[in-house]
Amino acid sequence: MARGLLRAPGFAPFVLLQALGALGDNVYKNALAVAVVLHAGAAGPVLVAAAGGLFILPFLLVSARAGALADRLDKARLVRLAKIAELALMAAGSAALISASDAASLAVLFGLGVQAAFFGPVKYAIVPELVGAEDIASATGWIEAATFLAILIGSIVGPALMAEAAGGWLVGCVVISLAGVGLVAAFWLPPLTAAAPGVVCDRHFGREIATLLGQARHTPAVWAAILGLSWFWAVGAVFVTEFPTLAIPLSRHGARLVATMLAAFALGVGAGSVATGRLARGRSRLAACRTEV
To answer: Which domains does the chain have, with CATH numbers?
Structure first.
């Protein structure tokens, strides 16, 4: 089954570019959190919290628009555009880290949030077009496993690199290289036809978001899943945001301690995900809920 999936046209490159994107984002985000705490002094905790909000805000603002575009346009083309934007943003972010400009680094982080928000709907919608209907669950498992591994590695590597004397340069080289390889992988995707080319984007972002939420509320299983996932990410964001502000003042090896704490947190999330999958086995309502979301 696994070998057959990886031979499906475009699936292996997509898994690779998705994992590399998650890896680069987490290297940069966690390296930036350490840099901000080290540079900003007493204002560090506030800036770290602001950084988390800046990355998440675009998901609220543009996700509905991104979903409509994913229906209207060739998804392979959208993936390539997203990876080009990622490469440009990582280059700008590297320059910001090297120059120790917290303001520029936070601006780049917001840009990465916009890029990730536009890529998200494509990421979930592209799988059924790359593999057969009977392999969607297995394909999603491969993508989730690769993404989890990337998050774990990025959570360790980002703070560890910033602990070095030339941390900004090292992080820059890593994230630019990852984005470049991801862009190359994007060109191995086959052309994918638009699912609904007649979809019209609402010019009013607020109304578009309200319409999307209203539609979700009419499907109780989907609405419950959205609330559960939102709560999970809210709690996780609080913990991850506080790790640098807790660890760095306590130890002269604070950056490495942050990496350890993030790794432990990511491993816990992974273990819980595996346990949930096994507990939900055979329960069609939970499975359907996961598929719809």
So the answer is: 2-189+204-292 (1.20.1250.20)
